[in-house]
Amino acid sequence: MGHPPLEFSDCYLDSPDFRETLKCYELELERTGKSLKELIKDGNSVITAIRGYSVALQKFSQTLSMFQFDFIGDSLTDDEINIAESFHEFAGLLQEVEHDRMMLVQNASDLLIKPLEKFRKEQIGVTKEKKKKFEKESEKYYSQLDKHLNLSAKKKESQLQEADEVLDKERVNFYESSVEYVYQIHQVQDRKKFDVVEPVLAFLHSVLTLNNLTVEMTRDFMPYKQELQLSLQNTRNHYESTSEEMEELMKRMKQPSQISKMHNLLPMEGYLYCQEKWALGMTWVKYYCKYHKEGRLMVMVPCEQKPTTKQGPTQLTLKSCFRRKTESIDKRFCFDVETNERNMPVTFQALSEGDRKMWMEAMDGKEPIYHSPIHKQAESKSVNRSSQSEDVDPTNPGDVDLHSSDWDIKTITSALKFYLRSLSEPLMTYSLHRDLMCAAKSDNLDFRLSEIHSLAHKLPEKNREMLEMLIKHLVNVCSHSDENRMTPSNMAVIFGPTLLRAKEETVAAMLDIKFQNIVVEILIEDYKKIFSNMPEDSTAPPVPPPRITPRKRQPITISKRPPRVYPTLSHDNFQNTENGQEASSTVDVSASPVPLQRTKPVSCIPQVPREPPPRLALMPRPSNRQERHEDSEAGKVDDTRQRPDSSSAANGESGVYVSRVPSFQGRRPPPKGTSGVYVAENVILTRLSASEFKYVQKN
């Protein structure tokens, strides 16, 4: 319940009821002042927290932008470029969000704190001053009244008349201070209804506007997120397939036969200890040596550098090499080398007997390599036995009923893959491997397709026919990707290393598996064009060499969107609303994004929100009875909007009236997953009508 009104006429009576009512108003103002202090304190805390959060996110975005991805290999796939640039995209998006946040909260103090402080000082503070004056004048008046009543009637008439004049003067001062105090109480009670609510409304609008911007940026971010997730999944698939190949290569490299094979490759290089003779004695110095057979050049790089001097590599031209007899030196695994640069032979110590034999073989040394006849015979038998097991019996062509229920699909597919991997030369041949890799590494997507199209028709006829048959089957399998999850990208991961492989297995060749997968993916996606049409005879651009640095373009991006333009928000936006100029925007956030299929590089462009329907201006109240009667019939159409309040008119309020605004909680949009429209509007005296709101929902 509200307090009873303070009438100015009660100031002259100064009754106990008047004083009691006045006390109630004073307690209410005291509570209002305390509440304003708490509101201002908490508002400052919120603003400080928002700014601190924004500063932390800006620091996080700077760290993301400074993060660098280094990749192995001479070229990057489009997926790897997306991943390499992802942190820069994240940083740009966060910086854009925080820029908008700082733009909206930097004037939060002007919107919220300063207006509340102004009201507390100018209105409540002035009321307290009026109260002090009222109490002072009241005390003076009643003190003078007591003195006046205690005057003796025997006083002279002139003295009594003078006393009456003094009392009248004090009474006038008391009445004036009382009336001014009551007037100020009415002023502060009325002004706090809008002077306190408007700043909070303005601040709340800024917070909701920021949330609305975040929703829009999230909507813009979704296509980029889905494309990046595809890149991450493809890169993960490439890694899993490459890691298996890499692990197999590592195991093969550990085998003694492979170690011996690698040491036979030119140039021969490794660690050797060299005997160096000095005037005071002899020492063994460790060198990393590399022998070039073509020029018979031995390059020796010292491994133990002296702290004072830095010794460069030593080059020796080889004349001859021979094994050092064991009885002639106390070291094992030694051999001598005669050079053009030195008069005396140079003695080297290898790391093992096998290492010495490899060095001598590379240098055409006099130490021969003998094989046991028994070992040769056993090896020959083993080879013959292995060959007989792999040969196909011509009397048994291998016709098998693949539709029989006895065969499992996985068994048939594994047998097909094993057959293709067991070919002495891959189906797409060694001779075209380098050209196919260069085509897959090209920046130009059209060039990739045209070059692979041309190279596919350069295959031998039997290879091309089998490749066409296989790719046709893979296209059929990929057409059911909704059920079997075998998209062209996933299928390429499986058959890329099967249809293409480098002639020599190295780490660099393992890193090119991802580009082999790209070739197979293009063959599947463009099967009809590649195998149904001959390549065009137009002069193709030269094949670009492998890149040393990553490509400059960005296949997908979000941070390069056109900048948003937002109106400056100030406290003036929430005043002078009688002209009916208000801003509103509608954003549909209920629709979930649809997953995209990878086609070509995309960029995210923000969508412009649809303009809301025009608002209806405030309706002035009819000035006379006749006009009121005419408007009463029209008012029946929308009774909730134009129902006059007779009590407000009787109290002398303004002729402008509005209906009661329903609770915001009742107008909140439905939960996520249902259709609805989020309406963020700047409203003080007007609101969307029911028909207008339905129009927004419909559109």
UniProtKB/TrEMBL annotation:
CDD domains: BAR-PH_GRAF_family (cd01249). The keyword Metal-binding does not apply. Residues 335-531 form the Rho-GAP domain. Keywords: Coiled coil, GTPase activation. Residues 624-644 have a biased composition (Basic and acidic residues). Gene3D superfamilies: Arfaptin homology (AH) domain/BAR domain, Pleckstrin-homology domain (PH domain)/Phosphotyrosine-binding domain (PTB), Rho GTPase activation protein. Residues 370-400, 533-676 are annotated as: Disordered. GO terms for biological process: signal transduction. Residues 265-368 form the PH domain. Residues 225-252 form a coiled coil. GO terms for cellular component: cytoplasm. Residues 380-389, 570-589 have a biased composition (Polar residues). GO terms for molecular function: GTPase activator activity. This is Oligophrenin-1. It comes from Scophthalmus maximus.
